[in-house]
Design goal:
This protein has ten helices and seven strands. With 254 residues, it is an alpha/beta fold.
């Protein structure tokens, strides 16, 4: 993993900016809890695109065997390092757009903050569903297309502006690489097309520009309050992350 990427992975969950830290940790908290709630003895699990591998401890604890796949060497390196601590963990280089993983095999697949980096959501979801057993669970999270933070990023990463942003945050800031942001409606259409039933849906992560950058604990308090007010309203699209627990239907048509 190159120095810049390593620094970024370290800082986003432990950022000196309290809003940035809260945005990432609140998503992690939901995913960790979701893993616990759907797990059972003897479970075969897989994480596709583990990034900095923050969910591997929770998955390894709850699975009888855990597969970890990615195409990025820097992420595989972190996963291989983790696998040395547990015989239950198998690390593979695998591209989910042309996956060689066994079909109808996994009880649980985690796919968090990955689909927005891949152009063809339908292809990816179809491949994932193929890997799940009937009744298998997919935990998926992805940014919302029109969330405040994604809209702000379009400005923040403009030339000159990004230099100012880095001075304000005083920690690594890299472009998101989000090339396929989807709305909730678009996501649910994909799920229906692939025979995935929505068991649970959740949204989190309100970012308010300026307030987030300069008002510390007060900003987090205000944003938490407003997040709770809007998450079940038509304004919920302004929240950053949409999270789902999905179940493979008994009938899956390719």
């Amino acid at each position: 993993m190159n120095a810049t990427e390593a620094e970024l992975q370290e800082t986003i969950y432990n950022s000196r900016n309290l809003t940035r830290r809260w945005l990432h940790q609140s998503r992690k908290c939901w995913v960790d809890n979701a893993i616990e709630r759907v797990s059972f003895r003897g479970m075969l699990a897989c994480e596709i695109g583990p990034g900095s591998c923050i969910y591997l401890p929770k998955l390894e604890k709850n699975a009888s065997q855990l597969y970890v796949t990615d195409i990025e060497n820097q992420h595989l390196t972190v996963a291989f390092s983790f696998s040395k601590k547990s015989e239950k963990v198998v690390v593979l280089e695998d591209d989910i757009t042309a996956s060689k993983l066994p079909e109808n095999f996994f009880d649980l697949i985690l796919f968090s903050e990955v689909i927005e980096h891949i152009p063809n959501a339908s292809l990816v979801l179809n491949n994932i569903v193929r890997k799940l057993k009937v009744g298998g669970i997919l935990i998926l999270s992805t940014p919302q297309k029109y969330s405040f933070i994604e809209l702000a990023c379009k400005i923040a990463f403009m030339p000159i502006v990004i230099d100012l942003v880095r001075k304000i945050y005083r920690e690594p800031i890299l472009e998101t690489g989000h090339i396929n942001l989807l709305t909730e409606r678009e996501m649910r259409k994909h799920f229906a097309n692939q025979g995935l039933l929505v068991v649970e849906a959740y949204k989190c992560g309100l970012y308010i520009p300026i307030l987030s950058e300069f008002f510390g604990k007060f900003a987090v308090k205000v944003q938490k309050y407003l997040e709770d007010k809007v998450k079940h309203t038509p304004l919920s699209h302004i929240l950053w992350t949409q999270c789902y627990i999905l179940k493979k239907n008994e009938i899956h048509t390719d």
